[in-house]
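Notebook, p. 212. Picked up where the previous page left off. The plan for this session was modest: take the two constructs that came back from the sequencing core last week, fold each one, and keep the raw output in the notebook itself so nobody has to go hunting through shared drives later. Recording the first one now, exactly as returned: residue sequence, then the structure token string.
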Amino acid sequence: MSQFDPFADFRMDGQVAIITGGAQNIGEAIAKTFAGAGAKVMIADLQGDKAEATAKALSEATGRDVRGIGCDVTNEADIQRCVAETVKAFGGVSTLVNNVGWGRAYADPLDIDPQEMLKSYELNTISGMRMTAACRPHLLAAKNPSITNSGSMVGVLPAFDFLPYSAAKAAMNHMMLGLAHYFAKKVRINTILIGTVLTPGYADAGLDAATQERLANPNNLTGRAGSPQDVANAFLWLASNAGSWVSGQTLQVAGGGTRVRLIPD
């Protein structure tokens, strides 16, 4: 009699994943975790050289086939080339992770150029729809196909200092919920609302050292900021067979929310 393996459903053998923005930080952790679980992975990143270098390192670390490709997810030709190269290399696509996203801080939200708002929607919202459309025929032909998106807690909480980014992420939440209903019984779609995960991107977004220090010690239920691996573990659950009964959900992976109380303890 074979011994029961409680982790078998978390395996991703036979799965083919595209991970946008996968060359570093959270995307890299997702790619490493998926490959370690048995998936074949294509890292799609604006920085093509870095995507290829990360893929090479993850292949060596996991013993799995991980590849990298330069891809601007706001460019339709790049998206089509990414999907075509993935299908050519691996025979299909069963798992799409819309991880790419970026935003910066603004002192006064009413001084924001409307073009900045539109650019943010193009990167943080519309790119997910375009990637989904390009992958659709391959997802529909796959076993346990899924789309999992990197959302943000600022997409559900007020964040006037990150207005373009937070508004675009809020739109993505609603858009992907609509697509989950459209793909019902065919493709599972979920979004992870990510809390504070300190990466070099925070400095790039314009947050000063004092703000980063406050974010590193949040007043949440776990008492700490998150790590890329904390987030990657949630992606593994939702993309693998372990999450096969989960769709149309926004899952908070954010340290348990705030401990701030209006009434003193």
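Okay, moving on. Second construct, recorded in the same format:
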Amino acid sequence: MICSNHRLTGAVFALVTMASLAGPLMAQQQLEGFTEPYRRIAVPASEIGVISEIAVVEGDEVLQSQLLARLNDTVLVASLEVARASKDAMGTRRGAEAEVRVREKQLASYRELQENGNASRRELDRSETEYQQAIARLQAIDEELEVRRLEYERVKAQVQRRRIESPISGVVVEVAKEAGEFVSPTDPIVLQVVQLDQLKAIFSVPLSLIRYVREGAEVTLQTGRENRDTQGIVEFVSPVADAESGSVRVKIRIPNLQRSIQSGIAVRWFLDAPTVRISQRTD
């Protein structure tokens, strides 16, 4: 009987020893968090003024650069039309071009006459001066037209800034103001838009496990009450640890093109970490 016990103990020891040589065990540490919109943007008005239009309602899906709201721009639109007319006014320039052509022909005629001895040097110099003056007037008009064009672009940009556009493709989750309300520098937020085709989950990983986490690694998460397996990608591992909790902030991006995962639900991450196997013999 004693011999049998010794043989059994030896067999157990051999199995434990072989297992320890095969490699370390993997233990799972459960981390919990919540899904969040990948981006949540409070969309402000870039100018102060009265809202003339809210073009969306809560729940609307919007594309990047889509109009969300507009500030009153009646005065600026009128100024834009004035600037457009001023920019496109070409009568003065056509007159200056015609004068340049006339002075150029006169100068050519005086040069020919001077070569034949029928015009004095003084008459030729005066003709050259008049030609240069005509060119200078045409240049001054071109410069003025360029200033008018820039003024038109400036007013056009001001009108554009009265438009409140979506910075991303996403869903409107809050409309903070209504048409007729005033937008001030101290309260500029008009709407909130979130991106849901990707989600994120933030985990606090203990310092003892952070060395097993790598940016860019694919991980399996479990979401919701059904504990459905969901793939995620480690997008960010904070280089700074939280001294109070002894943990490191890790952000995981969760692809969600079909919108099958709800934002705000529980998500669990079972982080694998090696543990030391017991290989001591106990009699």
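Notes on construct two before I forget. Confidence is low (pLDDT under 50) at residues 1-23, 275-283.
Flagging for discussion at group meeting.
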